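Researcher: Here's the sequence for the chain we discussed earlier.
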Amino acid sequence: MDPTNEQSANSIAVAPAGGKVPDGTGIIDLDPWLGDFRDALKSRFAKAKRWIDTFDQHEGGLEKFSRGYEKFGFTFADNGDITYREWAPNATQAYLTGDFNGWNRDSHPMTKNAYGVWELVLPARDGVPAIAHNTKIKISMVIPGGERIERLPVWITRVTQDLNVSPVYDAVLWNPPKSERYVFKHPRPPKPESVRIYEAHVGISTPELKVGTYKEFTQTMIPRIKYLGYNVIQLMAIMEHAYYASFGYQVNSFFAASSRYGTPDDLKELIDTAHANGITVLLDVVHSHASKNTLDGLNMFDGSDHLYFHEGAKGRHELWDSRTFNYGHHEVLRFLLSNLRFWMDEYQFDGFRFDGVTSMLYTHHGIGTGFSGGYHEYFGPSVDEDGVVYLMIANEMLHNLYPSCITIAEDVSGMPGLCVRLSLGGVGFDYRLAMAVPDMYIKLLKEKDDDQWDLGNIAFTLTNRRHGEKTIAYAESHDQALVGDKSLMFWLADAQMYTNMSTLSEFTPVIERAMALHKMIRLVTHSLGGEGYLNFEGNEFGHPEWLDFPRAGNDNSFWYARRQLNLTEDKLLRYKFLNDFDRAMQLTEEKYGWLHSPQAYISLKNESDKVLVFERAGLLWIFNFHPSKSFTDYRVGVEQAGVYRVVLDSDWMEFGGFGRNDRNTRFFTTDMQWNGRSNFTQVYIPTRTALVLALESTL
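Model: Thanks. This is the structure I predict for it:
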């Protein structure tokens, strides 16, 4: 942990807002519609404050409480002694067994304290630890009734799988000699003002028919991501998951970095290398549920149904076939909060994208529930107040201890206050994902002809976000790449992706349309849709095929569990044009900073012309979505008078376009109001083209 960020144990508290003692209702000043739910807001806030007070009184503060990994699991003294602690209150006896004692289930008994925590100290001999590094271990327990069960230690930091033997994971003690441990060389980069996220999965980040590695990602993907102009990597499927095809969403060992891709040190090198390149790294954290595995998961760990989870049906997620956490339990909070601290401290992650937040916020987990936006849906008996409060505490902890930390919520419900700080009664995330945006594009491409696109609805969907809450916009994420769905490029080009993406083949109307709209959809999403942008790896250049992990249904094939990143390197393929446009888009944002600028002013949504015009970050944006019409001397309003030039044109030839606008053209404004703006200028906007104009000089 960076000592400059460390605070005293009792310094984490709910900060007063505006001199007034906070009670959770400050958010009503941001959104008066919440006034009817004042009592519910107070209740959430009071519960979060009670937990923080409890930690202060009994645990030495939240800062100390959230360092559970320094006490539980395996800890190592400087003299080589090893201590193992595990919370398993239902067990009547517990023993440590493994390679170190020839798998003797009785030779190393543990002792239990009043809180159900078992402990064993293994002294070193002549400085040599009693358990060798990288050897297998288990905890063996006797439960009421006399049954003997064996489990993997809950806080274990390394588990490995040998599918030739069994799909069940083995726990491994990871304790390399200090001289061999990876040492971070680079500090975390500053928190980016504009968040441009490259969502990636290490295992699929290779064109080869195999599971990619951390080292390969470090060598090949980080330079690619840097070149493209992204400044944040969001890593998926890092927390160890039993089933590769679950995309990382069936976690069984929460403190173990997936061994499929390499060693813990390999992951540290990946993150350190990203930091050296000025790139922030987020972990896709899964605290919404856990694998129901018993032999190598948390489920039924000490023989009880309710250790980390709710008992009975409440503790089961029917849609995901997994277990749901009891966020109202003291030890569960220790486990989850410590898990966040572990990934920040041990691996130097810079923050988290919280998966499945909707499931955490509601007792129905979002199953079979459509959210209309009515505020009554966000309060009342369907809300899991314990889940809401856990997220409040987690965000408060992270942002106090790591001021540059970034947290993102994946929530489909649109709960108000998700991205408002706790002192005002919010949940405390930095950003929320704009999940309605990709759904809108798929619906358009599936159900509407191009001349039926409703620009007003497109603009509304892209700008419809809660006041004061930041949003990450995206045209498509990993969800749209998965089998059963189609990427945008696949919807646009379909079979011709296989026949006409070579520059030596005919530039058909289908491919011309696909490439033009692929660029325009990305640019309008980037510029109008939020305060951050996300892309899933490969989608930046219109990846030709979907994503499907090896499983029984496809004969365990890796054919679709890879990314054909090599396609952009072939100068005879049109994918390079889309890739180059994506890079230009990111670098233009880096220069002008529209993502951290106020929301755009939209001056024109012409439904018959299919023209959309707006201003943001001092730039003038002009989109012509008309499928067949180009417009000469098209008059567009602009507030700032002066001379403008084109800084980005989706029709430039280096992006696979026709170069129909002369790059040297300058656009002079006329002092006359137009579309509610003080001035206007006139432009040529070819069919299916987007132009971005910047002020070159004032008149």
